[in-house]
Design goal:
The complex is a heterodimer of chains A (about 280) and B (about 325).
Chain A lengths: L1 E11 L2 E11 L4 E5 L6 H8 L7 E6 L2 E2 L6 H6 E4 L11 H9 L10 H7 L16 H13 L5 E5 L7 H17 L2 E6 L2 H7 L2 E6 L2 E6 L1 H7 L4 E8 L2 E8 L13 E7 L4 H9 L5
Parallel strand pairs in A: 3-8, 3-9, 6-7, 7-8
Antiparallel strand pairs in A: 1-2, 1-4, 4-5, 9-10, 11-12, 11-13
Helix pairs in contact in A: 3-5
Chain B lengths: L3 H15 L2 H19 L10 E4 L12 E3 L3 H8 L5 E4 L6 E3 L6 H12 L18 H36 L1 H5 L6 H28 L1 H32 L3 H24 L11 H13 L7 H27 L3
Parallel strand pairs in B: 1-2, 1-3
Antiparallel strand pairs in B: 3-4
Helix pairs in contact in B: 1-7, 2-5, 2-7, 5-7, 5-8, 5-9, 5-10, 7-8, 8-10, 8-11, 9-10
Classes of the chains: A alpha/beta (about 280), B mainly alpha (about 325).
């Protein structure tokens, strides 16, 4: 679906933003692009969505080279959620969706009210202007805007930003449903939880380079220390012991009265990011 | 295109309504028309009042515009306003007394006008050219000036205000990933501003020139309105999309008003003559508008070619800045 080979881009002659990026996103895959601010995530997404031109290397979407002039058909196949909920504040949620959907063929469109209902948008606000909405409500309308045209490829930039925990869970569920429908999702984020829970594969990007690319599980497993931390009680005292995972094969290998907790010392995706890039995600 | 344009026009119309653009235009129309009909046409400033001190009663009959002064002191007081002219006939030859206006040309006019009072044979009647009486001349002149001001200043500001709203909301960026041509985004706004300006021009002309005189000048006026409206709307679009915020735009607007529009008004309305004014593009647009109201077709092929080139250039610049704005973030 998306194929990128030796992608380079410079905003100025002396400032190269992307250094020879190469990756491929398969049909129906959720591909995470993880990196801190200024790492080149948004630049890559802009090139993939056809906004930014003048790059080096090869980029193709839907088997078509991105260097050729984008037709309206190309934009009919993609949906983009920006990091900030850009909407017409003088219009209501329904009017915004009606306006943005008017550029797509009618047969391709989803029902706006149904979509907003799915995104748990408060019905009382359907016809009220966007100025009266909370950030979470604006983000829901923006998500509805990205989904309303039933895109084949969905570009999501920090989709759960500005949402409360239940909203974030809802958005993850909806993204997962999209994938099940066959939509390819390109997720740009520095939220490692989103990436860990949603992505089939993730690429760590830092200073315009891809430092690692694999499934979240593989990235964590390959670098796991395989230690296990056990909290237990023995002879009235609370104790803690760290053992290697294979030692557990024959049960708890030390005397104890009660096991309080067992923690695998598996690294998080953020730990892995720091290990590969030498810098944090935030 | 067939589907995109109506959607964009509808959205822009709602933006214009919410930004009170039409309210401002209606307010201007009412204000201008009231001023023209109730104030301007009634302003009839006397041309250089003339005072005469003639102790020897050497003049038998005096024209109506001459006022008699009984003493030299009274004469002196009368012309000391810096505008009136005094004629002192106490000596063998008439003496002209006045405070200089600062312009030799104007002082000569004043002196010649005052001396005409001494010739009693009535041989200096001016020949009347054209059909305009003074009131109609005033109406045409002031209407063309108000229309020029409305299009060059208010139209420029109106479109920019609308665009700044969209910039502030960030929605321009969304249009970069929608299946529409950026040209249509510009054309929709341009079309609405043009239509609004044309309606404004029709109403202002008919209200202030009357139905018959108004209709007779409308084709030429609408042509000049269209040209000026498109140029100013595109200039407003370009400035608004290029500048980061409305404060900087306001400063630019001030510069535009003071340094661009003011010399044009001064050159077109007063007897100040600057040779460089011919190099000022707005002067030609102003004069073309004024001439349209007086049935004077002075605009030639070069004028229209330059206007067309300016429109194309401004459109391309606006499009370039629009596509740059679409790639911005945050």
């Amino acid at each position: 679906m998306i194929e990128v080979k030796d992608l380079t881009f410079s905003y100025r002659k002396d400032k190269q933003a992307l250094h020879s990026l190469t990756f491929k996103v398969e049909d129906g895959e959720i591909f995470g692009f993880l990196g801190p601010n200024g790492s080149g995530k948004s630049t890559t997404q802009k090139i993939l969505t056809g906004i930014l031109k003048g790059y080096g290397g090869q980029v193709s979407l839907f088997g078509q080279n991105m260097n050729s002039e984008h037709t309206q058909t190309f934009y009919q196949k993609i949906g983009v959620l920006f990091e900030f909920p850009y909407l017409y504040s003088n219009l209501s949620a329904l009017d915004n969706l009606k306006y943005f959907s008017s550029f797509y063929p009618r047969g391709q469109l989803r029902d706006a009210e149904e979509l907003l209902d799915k995104l748990e948008f408060i019905p009382d606000f359907l016809k009220k202007p966007v100025t009266s909405y909370s950030k979470g409500m604006r983000q829901r309308v923006s998500m509805a805007r990205a989904l309303i045209s039933n895109p084949q490829v969905l570009f999501l930039d920090e989709p759960t930003s500005g949402l409360d925990p239940s909203g974030a869970v809802l958005f993850r569920r909806i993204i997962e449903e999209e994938r099940q429908k066959g939509t390819t999702v390109f997720l740009t984020t520095h939220n490692m939880l989103d990436a860990d829970l949603l992505c089939d594969r993730v690429a760590f990007i830092s200073n315009g380079n891809i430092a690692a690319l694999d499934t979240p599980e593989n990235l964590k497993r390959q670098n796991s220390s395989r230690y296990i931390e056990i909290d237990y009680c023995y002879e009235g005292r609370q104790l803690k012991k760290v053992i290697e995972a294979p030692e557990l094969e024959d049960g708890i290998p030390f005397a104890h009265d009660e096991i309080i907790s067992i923690h695998s010392k598996e690294p998080t995706l953020e730990d892995m990011f720091i290990q590969y890039t030498g810098r944090g995600l935030s | 295109m067939q589907k995109s344009l109506p959607a964009l026009i509808k959205k822009d119309l709602r933006l214009m309504l919410s930004s009170k653009f039409f309210l401002l235009a209606i307010g201007s129309l009412v204000l201008y028309s009231c001023y023209i009909n109730f104030v301007y046409v009634n302003i009839d400033q006397d041309i250089f009042p003339v005072y005469l001190y003639d102790p020897h009663h050497s003049l038998e009959s005096l024209p109506s515009f001459v006022t008699k002064a009984d003493s030299r002191k009274e004469l002196q007081e009368a012309y000391s306003d810096g505008y009136s002219v005094g004629l002192d006939m106490s000596g063998a030859t008439p003496k002209i007394c006045m405070i200089s206006s600062g312009s030799d040309k104007t002082d000569n006019y004043r002196a010649a006008y005052a001396l005409s009072a001494l010739s009693s044979d009535g041989s200096s009647h001016a020949e009347l050219i054209g059909k305009n009486d003074r009131e109609m001349k005033n109406r045409r002149e002031i209407t063309s000036e108000f229309l020029f001001f409305e299009l060059s200043a208010v139209g420029f500001l109106g479109l920019a205000a609308m665009l700044f709203k969209e910039k502030h909301m960030g929605v321009i960026r969304i249009h970069g990933i929608l299946p529409i041509n950026p040209n249509i985004f510009i054309l929709s706004k341009l079309g609405l501003i043009l239509l609004s300006d044309l309606v404004f021009a029709v109403l202002l002309t008919l209200f202030n020139l009357g139905i018959n005189a108004g209709i007779s000048v409308l084709p030429a006026v609408l042509l000049q309105t269209g040209i000026l409206s498109i140029i100013m709307a595109l200039a407003g679009f370009f400035c608004a999309i290029s500048l980061p915020d409305f404060k900087q735009f306001s400063l630019l607007y001030l510069i535009l008003a003071i340094f661009i529009t003011t010399p044009v008004f001064l050159a077109g309305q007063t007897n100040l003559s600057w040779s460089w004014i011919n190099l000022h593009p707005m002067y030609h647009l102003f004069m073309a508008m004024k001439n349209a109201y007086f049935h004077t077709p002075v605009a030639n092929g070069t004028y229209y070619t330059v206007c067309a080139a300016a429109i194309i250039l401004l459109f391309l610049l606006a499009r370039l800045r629009l596509t740059r704005e679409m790639t911005k973030e945050g």
